[in-house]
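Q: What residues go here?
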């Protein structure tokens, strides 16, 4: 039996890869896509999607009314993530969401809807398996080396800073690290923002440049030593094994999971 899937945001860099992955994965069936344009057209009529004959909808509600859908893969923009999840829940569809920008309140409220409906949901700041391992290893290291700074580097089209991955990494570290202010207690910034953003005493630095995809290093400092844990996504295909895992996993849960680290043992 095939898992019937809709991809929202198919023309984005991540969306294109997700369409290819779903179309080529045994047991997955792409039944439609949701886009901001091309209503009523077939996806194969759009450049770059030759041979993928599924309808394009601009209205997600209408898509769910017309099609039998099990899972929504949402790879749109932060402004639409919550609305799309609520629409999915209302139609009995399990969302897998790769957009960031959710607040703790958003997650709490969406988890309540998920559990009330008995529908699994996954929000993943990062789908790269290596990035999830980086976060897990960083949490392990922070127990023994609590002085840490995070540098994340992304392409210059990314809208949010810091990245969801950097924030998630800091949150995981904070679970095992007592809050402490790092650096010289009397330090001053001669240029505002030079020390980066602050999260419970940790510093997070964001770089945005063309040519980058998604990169992060977590640097720990100790007496006479440093430890750097780094992950690099050099191509967006690196995210697809995680998207596939999320789709398979969301069918087995009845709550909202924030972060693939809760899925990977």
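A:
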């Amino acid at each position: 039996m095939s898992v019937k899937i809709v991809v929202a945001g198919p023309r984005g860099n991540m969306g294109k890869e997700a369409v290819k992955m779903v179309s080529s994965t045994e047991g997955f069936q792409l039944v439609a896509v949701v886009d901001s344009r091309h209503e009523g057209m077939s996806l194969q009529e759009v450049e770059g999607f030759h041979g993928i004959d599924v309808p394009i909808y601009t209205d997600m509600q209408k898509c769910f009314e017309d099609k039998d859908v099990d899972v929504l893969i949402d790879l749109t923009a932060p402004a639409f993530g919550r609305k799309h999840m609520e629409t999915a829940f209302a139609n009995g569809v399990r969302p897998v969401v790769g957009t960031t920008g959710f607040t703790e309140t958003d997650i709490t409220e969406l988890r309540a809807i998920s559990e009330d409906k008995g529908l699994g949901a996954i929000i993943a700041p990062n789908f790269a398996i290596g990035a999830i391992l980086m976060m897990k290893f960083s949490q392990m290291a922070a127990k023994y080396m609590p002085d840490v700074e995070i540098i994340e580097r992304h392409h210059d089209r990314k809208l949010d800073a810091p990245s969801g991955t950097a924030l998630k990494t800091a949150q995981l570290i904070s679970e095992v690290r007592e809050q402490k202010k790092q650096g010289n207690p009397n330090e001053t910034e001669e240029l505002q923002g030079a020390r980066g953003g602050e999260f419970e005493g940790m510093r997070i630095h964001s770089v945005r440049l063309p040519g980058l995809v998604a990169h992060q290093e977590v640097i720990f400092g100790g007496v006479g030593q440093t430890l750097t844990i780094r992950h690099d996504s050099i191509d967006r295909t690196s995210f697809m094994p995680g998207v596939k895992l999320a789709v398979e996993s969301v069918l087995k849960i009845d709550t909202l999971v924030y972060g693939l680290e809760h899925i990977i043992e």
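A: Context that may help when evaluating the design: The mean pLDDT is 94. The two ends are 26 Å apart (CA to CA).
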